[in-house]
Amino acid sequence: MTASSTDSIRKEIHLRAPRTRVWKALADADEFGTWFGMKLEGRFVPGQPVFGRITHPNYQHIHLEMRIERMEPESLFSYRWHPYPMDAAKDYSQEPMTLVEFRLEAAEGGTLLRVVESGFDRLPPERRDEAFRMNEAGWAGQLPRIERHVTA
Hints:
The chain has helices at 19-27, 29-36, 125-151, and strands at 2-4, 8-15, 38-41, 49-54, 63-72, 76-81, 98-107, 110-118. The chain has 152 residues and is of the alpha+beta class. A hairpin with a 3-residue loop joins strand 5 and strand 6 (76-81). Helix 1 packs across helix 2. Belongs to the AHA1 family. It comes from Geothrix rubra.
């Protein structure tokens, strides 16, 4: 399923893996970085930032901050970040962050994973459309990556 407004991106995937496995892939910073394509420094702890960089070819110049919001075991993992920070010379720290939420539900033969990224309407107008478009495409690519990771 894919549904979006101008403010939020919504994706979901049925994973043929137990919730405990999907949760570990989300809540463990090393595992998250492995399937997402990031090198993160530190652990995920609600209320704490985690810093890192993207490891995908052509994106290694992107350094990022994730502010962990909520971790409800096997149910909800959420964080805030600056979407699509492509210009290494630009300081994005004063811009609003979007909220990324992963919700897990038991499903026939595995786990239903829903991803919502919201808050695009608060971004500066000159960045809003491109950040939305690129992150929507990014999530479409990330869901198969987590699927391969948890079913390997």
